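Exercise 7 asks you to align residues with tokens for two separate proteins.
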Amino acid sequence: MNKTTDKIKHKQLRARKVRAVLVKNTERPRLSVFISNKNITAQIIDDNTATTLAYATTIGQKNTGKTMSDKAAWVGEAIAKTAKTNKIIKVVFDRGPRLYHGRIKVLADKARESGLEF
């Protein structure tokens, strides 16, 4: 295999390891975070019914911030507000293949400040 396919394979393996631990907790929905080069997306997923309960993204939004950390903070607040309107307070944080550092940490901190518990 070449270097690119190895990177993709190991990234998928890290994400599966994180989710394997989270799926054991079935009473709480999962807060899944995806970060691309330009946008950030967060969604709260109920794994029992495989449905999305709340959703926040920077795609198509204006004035979310200039840096990616600003965008992550905005998404953290937005997902917490959406979760409150849907009466969701406790979630399990799914960081995917990324480390709990930088943008992921900023998003999680803002979501906690806005009322989500995880």
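Second protein for Exercise 7:
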Amino acid sequence: MTTYDAVLTALGDPTRRAIFEHLAERPAAVVDLAALLPVSRPAVSQHLKVLKEAGLVHDAPVGNRRVYSLDPAGLVGLREYLDRFWNTALHSFKERVEHQHQKEEHTDD
């Protein structure tokens, strides 16, 4: 599975996306995330495991807890994947506008 496949799969679940979005705001421990979501602490831990395996989050011990935060490097593969489509769309749009402009100039003659 390519890097962006793992990221797309991980973010395909609404609960994991919610966790990811919360971590984008600030790092948090499992207990803190579970308090924000309608799932149990063990479920949050499982979702974090998937996000970690996809390279989207990392964790660090803080006292007797593990605090999770986003790993920006995990989004690089996804961004490159999406940029290909964005660049293609922009190029197609540019060609369409230029073609329309040329057509209008030709009609004005």
